[in-house]
Request: fold
Amino acid sequence: MRHRAEADQVRLLVPARRSAAGRPACRRRSAAHRARPAAVDRRARPPSTGARPPAARLRSRGRGFRGGAVWTGADGRRAASPESTNEAQRPRSPRRPGRWTMSSAVMVCETFLSARVQSRRRVPRSAGSPGRPRGGAHGPPCEPEVLRNTGPGRGRYRGVFRPDVRADRRSPVPRPAALQSERSNSNPDERKDRPYAEDTSNCRPRRPDPGSGAGAGAEGQLRLQTRRRTSPAFKTYALKDGTKVGQQLIDDRIVAAIDAAAGGEGLHQGRRQPRRGRRLPRGLRQAEGHLDLQLRLRRRLRPVRLGLGRRLGRRHDHARRCATS
Amino acid sequence: MRDILIGTLVIDVADAKKKQVAWRGMGVKEVDTQAKPEKRDKSINNAVNEDLQELSAEAEVR
Reply:
């Protein structure tokens, strides 16, 4: 009996209610259930066997239950009926065996990271307030020209530089000469590699930090030298394919996601693609795992595969040999 | 037993001048093979953004 076997196998750990006599308790059938017992039986009865298995007792549920009946096993415990869609009984869809899929995309940035490091290195963590939050009312307002690379969506450091332009962006206040920084007062020849010095000359000194007790005007001027080197030339990147996922659509999605994320960082894709590590002679092209030699014979391309010391394809001099023989 | 397919997205940032890998980001996530394309897009975008946020955070620390 198929159904009996199933009922015996599936003995769930849900204890059935037992009466005082030790028999499985049955709820009192309501009038509605009494009126339609056939429907309940029809639903719970196994389709293969006409008779109810003797070891299993059909136990109906109370009012409001739409699921039909619950089969109880020989020991009175609840078992799943053959029609039930119990989670433990449901055949699981075959899934792929667990494996680690390695998909990588190599992003080659020319000076992406170094530009970041430079810009961050110059941002002073002022001695008076080391734990000062970046931005806010601490930064000196300055010309928008200085911060032209820090517009919205132009990198993650906009939080650092945005407060500098918040208030006096439209009406820059000329900076007093007494508060000029040492950088702007230095020798012009030395300023060649500090091209931000002129641009920051209109900037006011940073507001003194009330907590530090010391005026940080000079430090504020130093802080303005930070973004000059982040020229657009530093914001290029190129993508180099790594290990493929195996599905072209997912590969395209990954590339598109990296492009979008890098574009959000203020980077744009460079025109030049990264050079391959090995330059092959003309007529050779690199493929994965083997070299394909393409020879032009009789105006046709005949690929000859050279792999593992074995020539898998037709030899390139095959035509010549045929001609001579 | 239930097999779980786990995908790993590795993003390497290399310095072209030094020809060295400057940073490597790795994200691991369970792959739903039955997911709709919209959900796949979303999960891939999330993975890439998380990786690049780590890159930015590390660059800030430096």
